[in-house]
Amino acid sequence: MTFAADELFLFYDELRDPEVIVRRGSCLVLGCLADELDHKVASKRAILLPLIFELINETNMEL
Question: Where are the domains of the chain?
Answer without folding.
Answer: 5-56
